[in-house]
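Figure 3 (text version): structure tokens given as input.
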């Protein structure tokens, strides 16, 4: 079983934390974790003024995770003198399909501190402050943590969910197509079904139910023949 962890942080020493985390899960839990580290202050994400560029960062993240859907994204909230924060990064990532269902931890940004920062900003009218807080809730951030995230990440990645396992298994069937289900889904590829599951498409559950029914009936017939 393999999972993917993305860390967006401007502290290079955090790469060691990723290595230790991956080693723990591999040796103690039997889970292989692909870890990716992104530093927003690296040259490839800077604009012409040599400042971190949010759009370049998000485009770079999407490119580096081509073909991958991270199970967990750990986002640092502050990047030195950068004009954007971790919340801005999350706001840009969430609408992208591959990141829409990922678990997200925000580090260096306690919830009460973020709320206080919003309400103490004199440049934002009250109505906009309320909208901003509502958006933060909509981002679906699971945990607001201090800099330490290893133990929480291990617990999150240890979770084995059918919705995590099934899409990856379906994608391993390169040219497989569905032929025996409802004609409505005839010729649907396994990769397309995996995408539907990841997107929480209501029809995906219908297909999965039918697949399980066919599988169970197959085993019943095998048992009857014994």
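Below: residues designed for each position.
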């Amino acid at each position: 079983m393999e999972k993917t962890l993305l860390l967006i942080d401007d502290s290079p020493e955090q790469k060691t934390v990723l290595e230790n985390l991956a080693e723990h899960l591999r040796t103690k839990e039997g889970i292989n974790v692909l870890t990716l580290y992104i530093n927003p202050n690296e040259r490839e994400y800077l604009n012409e003024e040599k400042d971190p560029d949010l759009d370049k960062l998000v485009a770079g993240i999407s490119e580096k995770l081509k073909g991958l859907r991270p199970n967990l994204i750990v986002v640092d909230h502050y990047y030195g003198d950068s004009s954007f924060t971790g919340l801005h990064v999350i706001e840009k990532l969430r609408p992208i399909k591959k990141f829409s269902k990922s678990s997200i931890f925000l580090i260096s940004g306690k919830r009460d501190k973020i709320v206080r920062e919003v309400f103490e900003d004199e440049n934002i009218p009250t109505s906009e402050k309320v909208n901003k807080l509502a958006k933060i809730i909509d981002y679906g951030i699971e945990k607001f943590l201090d800099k330490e995230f290893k133990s929480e990440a291990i617990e999150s990645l240890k979770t084995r969910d059918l919705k995590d396992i099934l899409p990856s298994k379906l994608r391993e069937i390169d040219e497989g197509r569905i032929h025996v289900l409802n004609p409505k889904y005839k010729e649907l590829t396994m990769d397309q079904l995996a995408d539907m599951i990841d997107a929480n498409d209501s029809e995906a559950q219908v297909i999965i139910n039918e697949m399980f029914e066919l599988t169970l009936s197959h085993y019943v017939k095998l048992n009857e023949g014994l």
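Residues 160-222 form one domain.
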